[in-house]
Amino acid sequence: MDKTETPRVFLVVVDDSVEMPVALYYASRRAQRSGGRVALLRVIPREESHGLASIEALMREEARQEAEQLLQRLARTVMDETGAIPVIYLKEGSLRDELIELVSQDPSISILVLAAGTGPEGPGPLVSFLASKGVTKLRIPLTIVPGNLTHEQIDSIS
After folding, report:
1. Are the C-beta atoms of 109 and 138 separated by less than 8 Å?
2. Pairing between β-strand 9-13 and β-strand 37-44 as defined by DSSP bridges
3. What percent of the chain has pLDDT over 70?
4. CB neighbours of 137 closer than 8 A, spacing ≥ 6?
5. Helix axes 20-34, 53-82, angle to 10 degrees
6. Over 70: is that where the pLDDT of 124 sits?
7. d(CA 142, CA 28)
8. What's the pLDDT band for 3 if we cut at 50, 70, 90?
9. For 134-154, what is each residue's pLDDT tens digit?
10. What residues pair up with 86 in beta bridges, in sequence order?
């Protein structure tokens, strides 16, 4: 890579799906092999108001702490795979909206990497949305990785 060239940033949405680690491993391998970086996005959904502000604040703080711990754990995994510290984004709101806003506002993000679910329920709501009408809202390529790939299979194709 030319020294003036900006490294590719592979964005992975950190959710609770069983296939997310596949997307993370794929993005880490691609970043490591191309001199790029990985970025992690975790979106905490806004909870509906239950009328007690103190309880809502406590629930929001607990969700934020859990998200931060998860992102720290995954950041160590990315560091082990790539040798570089990942970019971390922690947002609150709608996953779709926050993802599209981040991609449109951060010019450093080069590629969005998601893994598709392989079960009978389909590829997952975010993959389904982005692979259809949502793709028009992206300014970057979308890479969808089959969620059942092994590390060996990913190593052979990345």
Report:
1. no
2. parallel
3. 94
4. 100, 104
5. 40
6. yes
7. 15
8. low
9. 889 999 999 999 999 999 999
10. none
Query: Would you state the structure tokens that stand for residue 151, as one six-digit string?
Result: 């590390």
**How far is it, in rounded angstroms, from Cα 93 to Cα 103?**
15
Apex CA 112: angle with CA 109 and CA 117, to 5°?
A: 160
Say which amino acid occupies 115: A
Separation of alpha carbons 131 and 149, rounded Å: 19
CA distance 25 to 142: 16
Note the pTM of the prediction, 2 decimals.
0.91
- Whether 29 and 158 have beta carbons less than 8 Å apart is answered as yes
Find the radius of gyration of the CA atoms of the chain.
16
Which stretch of 47-51, 71-75, 124-128, 146-150 has the lowest confidence by average pLDDT? 47-51
According to the model, what pLDDT value does residue 54 have? 79
CATH of domain 9-157: 3.40.50.620
Q: Where are the domains positioned within the chain?
A: 9-157
Report which residue type is found at 22: V
